[in-house]
Amino acid sequence: MASRPFVHLHNHSDFSLLDGAIPIKKLVARAVEYGMPALALTDHGNLFGAIHFYLAAQAAGIRPILGLEAYTTRGDRRARGGGRGQTEINHLLLLVKDLEGYKNLVKLSSYAYLEGFYYKPRLDRELLRAHSRGLIATSACMSGEVNRLLAAGNLAEAERSARELAAIFGPGNFYLEIQHHGLAEEDVIRERAVDLARRTGLPLVATNDCHYLERGDHKAHEVLLCINTGGDIDDNHFHIGSEELYLKTAEEMSERFADLPEALDATLAIAEACRLELPLGASCLPDFPLPEDYPNADRYLADLARAGLAARYGEPTPAQRERLDYELDIIGRMGFPGYFLITRDFIHAAKERGIAVGPGRGSAAGSLVCYALGITDIDPLAHGLLFERFLNPERVSLPDIDIDFDYVRRGEVIDYVTAKYGKANVCQIITYGTMKARAVVRDVGRVLKIPFGEVDKVAKLVPDTLGVTLEQALKQNADLAALAATNEPWPTADLIRYALTLEGLTRHASTHAAGVIITPDPLVEHVPLYLNNKGEVTTQYDMAMCEAIGLLKMDFLGLRTLTVIEDALRFINEGRPPAERLAARDIPLDDPLSFELLRAADTVGTFQLESAGMRDILRRLQPTEFNDIVATNALFRPGPIGGGMVDDFIDRKRGRTPIAYPHPDLEPILAETYGAIVYQEQVMQIASRMAGFTLGQADVLRRAMGKKKAEAMAEQKRLFVAGAAERGYAEAKATEIFDLLAYFAGYGFNKSHSAAYAMISMQTAYLKAHHPAEYLAACMSSEMNATDRIVVFMNECRNHDIEVVPPDVRISHDEFRVHEGRIYFGLGAVKNVGHGAIEEIVRARRETPEALTDLYAFCEALDLRKVNRKVLESLIMAGALDALGPGRASLFAALEEAMAASASRQKEREAGQMNLLAALGAEEVQRVRKKVGKLPEWEPRERLAKEKEVLGFFVSGHPLDALRPTILALPLQNAESLKDCPDRSEVRTLGIVTALKQKLDSKERPMAFLTVEDFLGSYEVVVFGSVYELCGRQLAVDAILGFEGKTSLQESGEAKLLLDRAYTVDEALGAWPGKMHLHFSAGFAPDWVAQLERELRAHPGPQEVFFHLAGEGGQPVVIKCRGLKVEPGPWLQDFLRENRERFRCRFEGRPFPRVSERGKGGNGNGRANWARR
Fold first, then answer.
1. Which residue has the higher pLDDT, 1112 or 197?
2. What is the Cα–Cα distance from 1093 to 1076, expressed in whole angstroms?
3. How many other CB atoms are found less than 10 A from the CB of residue 1149?
4. 237 pLDDT tier (thresholds 50, 70, 90)
5. Taking the C-alpha atoms of 461, 467, 472 and 477 in order, what is their torsion angle to the nearest 10 degrees?
6. Model confidence pLDDT, tens digit, residues 519-562
């Protein structure tokens, strides 16, 4: 039979989270392929994908029908549980006819979340009646209210419900929906729905409940449902019993509904009725409240900007005024004065409240208006930044000003904006997480009940590269492709097939880190709202779709570094008179000491300059000016690094490569980057200089080059070459330079952003160079809960000869603080010590400083309801009460009695009795107060263990301290550097085992997971069964061992070590060191050299010895000691410890054992087996 035309009206994209499995673009493409004139999107309970779908359908030439499959309750939407109809949740399909219907659907979806959420976002009859105009409704699937009643045989109630819904939506706007997926219950509903239609005159409409694209995707869909709920593939609950929930052709639908052609025709009638035209492109900006004497925002903005220009520069030059007027004219013509006024207002409000604001972010730093208004703090004229990179008169779009705030107080700025424009008009933006390649492999593997270790092997074959897809990985990795071809011994072919189907689907919704929407009237008039599981309201549309419908989006970003800078300045300025206080704005960008720090790559803790790769660049570049740091920030990205641009830039800077320009006329543009094209702005300036482009036209050229669209590039090339010819440049040279620009445009970075962030880099470098203790204390305060980062900063303090000591109740505050040159741990870092307890301790020492003499006095001064026994025990273990008694063991033993005595006296005082201590003289006080008895102190290892228990760190010492010179000399990786090693790198480490967990592997052999700690943090060592058999007896908590194995990089960025061999320290000293290098920082006496030579000759062996000396002009001189070779071994521990002040020792590493030698490592007898060969 011939098929009838048909339109799919019931479709779930992947925005029906972890239920729909159809990406919107594929959904639209398939409908176009089937020749359908229209298509609906009806996700479960939300409009997340509505605008994505609308735009995709329009672009494909098919009419979009927006809708949703709503959840409804027969009771009151506000009710929570209990009562007839309150807990049952039904479905109702809603489709948009026109703009009024769209606005009503936006409100319905919003109120379902804001007022009706109870397990699901629910609508009730009251809401449906209030917002039904412009909508078509259908009775939905088997979970629809009418259909459930029909299935239950409650025909009268079903008819009553159908008539009620028809009355709500009006004549011709309610349909009885029937489906055919091969389910027996559907057949019952269908038969009774047909009868109901005849009795009521309500029309039927045929749909397919589409959840996946192809029939063959049904199993992948079941896997998706299991991912949603945590079930596995054997759980019958997820076996739907139908393989028909795919997007069918019109022919297939005609076959299934051949007996009800009117139900098929109804899909076309509905599609004809649904003709929504959204007014996209129009801006929806809130009105900024103007002073009474200003007629419009343009005038007010201009006056503020001109006043700000004078404040920045004094009497402005003609060039400065011209640039400002030019920008104001463009801003006014584009209709954005209100945007700038709103931004200026909340930034000024933040500064007035003492909230740190960044100097700029993104292209806004190129605007002189922004600089004059105080929105940014980097001078665009001094640094050659371009306004058109920010706001292009040739391409009208909303400006985008991103602002960094103190990350702790960022919320206060959002609260200010909310209070100013109204809670109903301000909210944050949603964002969606998707199923990434590695993660989806792990998810599917769990559902298929494949052992974790096997799934992990598959996941590890997918490159850990941003944006990589499974399809790409299969082409790149033969091992992965082989697994995709077999289901033996595990169903890896199924795993990869399902993962390919599910990869990229939307997994969850969360709140965007920065985006905030401000509207002139309530948000529900413009955008659907969502209530997340924290009770926070966000938009349902993501950032791009909010901008697409013209909403004003502001980015309020929290930047931890701004908090660090503010804290450091607060510590530095304590006790200083106002005139001598340092402010971030006063920090120079050309400070010599800061550049010394940068050239030494002493940049741990400095903004954007602390990674190992960046430190390597700084060492090689040897920066001398601010522009070098701007360029370094711009170049430190995979593209420029991989393309050799960084090496070329360094060679030009250091004079190893001559500085050359593509044309002499370009020298003024490229001189700051030594002839290299580094910035997008340079591409724009070259186009302007050579081809006569306006900077706006040059920005269009830059964007075309970045997108690499052939047609657009060809047109831009024609214009460039023609423009260059008019200005006297030869066609060949113009073509050459255009091609050069096209190449570098793919690598070029936004200079405005790089310059603004380089300013923060310089501020942090200055603070570390001039005030290292205060700066590092601020760094540690900002990372109070990040154990590994605290360890890194503690090590950095040691490198700078800054002592970090345990907290002290006489001195410490909530955060880390500097006192007399030492950094004291913050009380807030102590486990079990909350903010209330800290406030009470600070109060007690302020009001009764005499209490800080012994434990009894301290307890008496405290309100022990706020500072309880657990708190005091933790403080003792941390060392915070060391000054109050003879030792921590003694304090711990006396605590119970001290608290009891203090509590008793507090009760007496509360009962009105005389304060005993106040009535006695000082001598009597000491006689009456009991003394803490002296007990043997905890052993060092126990003391350190208790410190670590409550602080998370070893502070007053480290179990490895005696080995520090040895560890620094050996060729080792550490907890930090492991993360920078490529996956499966062969590495050696040394540390103390702080935790050990044993289990059986798949072959029932014991294996172990160790937590190992060194001076820079902790890492996990995995000991598989075959290795455990060889070295298991060495593995124990508190054992100090050397480890040899391979790295295993995790998606989190952490690294594990897969153990091949374990060594005692003596074994490692015999097995690992190769050639010996002794670095001397100063000269040395001949007699001492003779003594050193005798010590070394006492251990003859195969390893050469080299002396590194400082020659004339500081140039290094390397001397190979002829005839002197050593056999490294346990003797090195004493040798290195005794000579640590005389030289720095570094060993090269010996080669790793060959595969055939694995397992021949340490044997626990003091030397490694392979070291004896």
1. 197
2. 13
3. 15
4. low
5. -20
6. 999 999 999 999 998 889 999 999 999 999 999 888 999 999 99
Look at the block and give the residue holding tokens 């085992």: 993
> Closest Cα to residue 1023, out of 1039, 1034, 1014, 1013?
1034
Residues found in the chain: 1173
Closest CA to 138 of 5, 40, 219, 233: 40
Q: Is 1130 exposed, middle or buried (0-12, 13-18, 19+ CB in 10 A)?
A: middle
DSSP code, position 197: H
What's the confidence (pLDDT) of residue 1161? 45
Phi-psi region of 800 (alpha: psi -120 to 50; beta: other; left: phi over 0): alpha
In contact, 217 and 501? CB cutoff 8 Å: yes
User: Which burial class, exposed, middle or buried, applies to 659 when counting CB atoms under 10 A from its CB (0-12, 13-18, 19+)?
Assistant: middle
- The two beta strands, 817-819 and 822-824, are antiparallel
CA 689 to chain centre: 40
Residues of the chain with CATH 3.20.20.140: 24-210+247-273
Question: What burial class does residue 1123 get, using C-beta atoms within 10 Å of its C-beta: 0-12 exposed, 13-18 middle, 19+ buried?
Answer: exposed
SS3 of 422-478: the string is CHHHEEEEEEEEECCHHHHHHHHHHHCCCCHHHHHHHHHCCCCCCCCCHHHHHHHCH
Pull the structure tokens for residue 865.
């309801």
pLDDT by residue (tens digit) across 1121-1132? 888 999 999 999
- DSSP labels, 895-936: HHHHHHHHHHHHHHHHTT---HHHHS-HHHHHHHSPPPPP-P
Share of the chain above pLDDT 70, in %: 94
Contact indicator for 866, 860 with CB cutoff of 8 Å:
no
**Mean pLDDT, the chain, integer:** 90
* Tokens 């006396």 sit on residue: 894
Mean pLDDT across 944-953:
90
Q: How far apart are CA 1003 and CA 1000, in angstroms?
A: 8
pLDDT on residue 785: 84
Yes or no: say if 540 and 46 are a contact pair by the CB < 8 Å rule: yes
Read off the pLDDT band of 1163 (50, 70, 90). very low
Residue 402, beta-bridge partner list: 555
Q: Report residue 866's pLDDT band, with 50, 70 and 90 as the boundaries.
A: very high
The confidence score (pLDDT) of residue 722 equals 94
> What is the distance between the alpha carbons of residues 583 and 568, in angstroms, rounded to a whole number?
10
| 15: Cβ contacts below 8 Å, ≥ 6 apart | 24, 43, 46, 48, 49, 52, 432, 506
The pLDDT of residue 914 is above 50: no
CB 398 within 8 A of CB 549: no
Question: Other C-beta atoms within 10 Å of 98: how many?
Answer: 16
Q: Let me know: does 36 contact 20? Beta carbons within 8 Å.
A: no
| Token pair belonging to 1007 | 């294996």
Identify whether 1130 is preceded by a cis peptide bond (ω within 30 of 0): no
- DSSP letter assigned to residue 1103: E
CATH number of the structural domain 24-210+247-273: 3.20.20.140
Query: Which residues are CB-neighbours of 1128 under 8 A, at least 6 positions away?
Result: 1069, 1070, 1072, 1073, 1076, 1099, 1101, 1103, 1147
* CATH dotted code for 961-1070: 2.40.50.140
List, in sequence order, the alpha helices (H) in 1047-1129: 1065-1071, 1086-1097
Rg, Å, the chain Cα set: 36
The pair of structure tokens assigned to 882 is 């060391």
pLDDT of residue 1167: 31
CA distance 761 to 589: 10
Averaged pLDDT, 601-622: 94
Query: Where does CATH 2.40.50.140 sit in the chain?
Result: 961-1070
